[in-house]
Design a protein that fits this description.
With 288 residues, this protein is an alpha/beta fold. The chain is built from 13 helices and eight strands.
Length: 288
């Protein structure tokens, strides 16, 4: 991920990061943050689908969210059935309509059983997301709906949502409603722009800047462990060197001794690309 921070009329500061944690740190310091050149996380279908489930779990009469949940994953509930349900909701409410319709439609009945199970085992947002993903066999679902690279990209967005939920729990507790409210506010509150702005881009779209920071230069991230495991790192190497050349007079590279990913600590070690560029000695790493 590429960051551009407009620090006023004289300087431009940038960095390439796993954006989520950095963005939250910037926001806590009053820096406005927005992402371009990519679809924002909360606008991605796989994320909106999962969040619809959370909305229904905490509010069973949220019909807008329920309409999305009905179609994901497919349950043989067509548009005509959904239209009839919508008419029933207007006449007699969500719960009565669903209870009556479930007696005639096995797919809907199975969905209500699933939601009842999830509601009974619901914890914090991160734990509930993991429970939901397991119940839906969601990773396998994604793998059946596209090419491997596309499926992995979508799964990485799911992992980012879980990481976001983990971080929210650590700082603010385990209330799912508050987590959902926070996501909505974070998504729409772009009007308070300060003179210092963080703009997130991808490595592919990076331009030149007065100072560049590339964070997370670790084996497993740069190059990504999935590419490293199969020995396919040439494109990762090229992108990293593109990032290096985006800095004009100043370049800063950072490495974590240990980072928290997917709810557990990982020690990746410095990227092999640093050693190749004679910027650091190689050290061992431990990948997910």
């Amino acid at each position: 991920m590429f960051l551009n921070v407009d620090a006023g009329p004289r300087t431009t500061f940038s960095g390439f990061v796993a954006f989520c944690s950095i963005a939250r740190a910037c926001e806590r310091r009053g820096l406005s943050v927005r992402v371009t050149a990519e679809t924002p996380l909360l606008e991605r279908k796989e994320i909106r689908d999962l969040l619809a489930y959370l909305r229904v779990l905490v509010n069973p009469i949220d019909w807008t969210a329920f309409e999305r949940v009905i179609g994901f994953p497919p349950r043989g509930i067509g548009a005509k059935t959904v239209a009839h349900l919508h008419e029933g909701v207007i006449r007699q409410g969500v719960e009565a309509t669903l209870a009556a319709a479930a007696r005639q439609h096995k797919g809907l009945a199975a969905l209500l059983v699933l939601l009842a199970m999830l509601r009974g085992r619901m914890g914090g947002p991160a734990a509930t997301l993991r429970l939901l993903i397991d119940a839906l066999n969601y990773r396998a679902y994604l793998s059946r709906r596209g090419e491997p690279d596309e499926s992995e990209r979508r799964w990485s967005h799911v992992e980012e949502l879980i990481e976001l939920a983990d971080g929210r729990e650590c700082r603010h507790g385990t209330d799912i409603r508050e987590f959902l409210d926070h996501l909505v506010l974070a998504d729409v509150d772009e009007s308070h722009v300060t003179s210092d702005q963080v703009l997130g881009l991808t490595l592919h779209s990076a331009l030149e800047f007065e100072a560049c920071v590339i964070t997370g230069v670790e084996d497993g991230l740069i190059p990504h462990y999935r590419h490293a495991e199969v020995g396919d790192v040439e494109e990762e190497r090229r992108l990293f060197y593109v990032g290096l050349t985006r800095a004009r007079p100043r370049l800063l590279l950072t490495v974590c001794r240990e980072r928290l990913l997917w709810g557990r600590p990982w020690a990746f070690g410095p990227s092999r690309f640093l050693a190749e560029a004679k910027l650091a000695a190689r050290s061992g790493s431990r990948h997910p």
